[in-house]
Amino acid sequence: AQSVTQPDARVTVSEGASLQLRCKYSYSGTPYLFWYVQYPRQGLQLLLKYYSGDPVVQGVNGFEAEFSKSNSSFHLRKASVHWSDSAVYFCVLSALVATGGNNKLTFGQGTVLSVIP
Amino acid sequence: EAAVTQSPRSKVAVTGGKVTLSCHQTNNHDYMYWYRQDTGHGLRLIHYSYVADSTEKGDIPDGYKASRPSQENFSLILELASLSQTAVYFCASSGQNTGQLYFGEGSKLTVL
Lengths: 117, 112
Known about the structure:
The complex is a heterodimer. Chain A has strands at 3-5, 10-14, 19-21, 24-26, 32-38, 44-50, 56-58, 64-68, 73-78, 87-96, 103-107, 111-116. By secondary structure, chain A is mainly beta. In chain A, a hairpin with a 6-residue loop joins strand 10 and strand 11 (103-107). Chain B is mainly β. Chain B is built from no helices and eleven strands. Chain B is globular. The chains are: A mainly beta, B mainly beta.
């Protein structure tokens, strides 16, 4: 079984401050990990993804995430947030299933980020 | 231009009525998905398809049917809509073995 936990349902930060959104996963195999962002009344958009290699991956709009196998974590970071970063952020685990090639995706419950101007 | 488009974007239905949500993708992807999002929750997989004329059950298929008449189109059908099916529904597509999804903008369904 696989699972994704985002322990912080809501995070509020001031504009210009640094940000970390936490993500912990449980999976016995090698995970593919993603962060998606959902702006109000829109679908989800990919921020960044990790397949293998360098544990720090860069994404769009200054976001980065660090994969830690020992901690089973994939935390999202940004050095300086902007009010436009206010959105819901989802951590997603992909476990590829050989039969039929289905991408078994597990979503975290999301973290609502509010940036105070 | 949007590569995954959903219709309708918003719908109000009556309990017991039939609802069809449609999805069209121009990504040339084999995989298409229907997810449900409830307030305060992540997305849950209802049905998916990896080839035309074939659909598979996801994690919460009860009360839903799906249809994939072509690679580009994937529909979600609620034969007898219920109050508990009020939610926002997202369609997505992906290539094989990438895990990266491309989402539509969602369809907000309210069942009264």
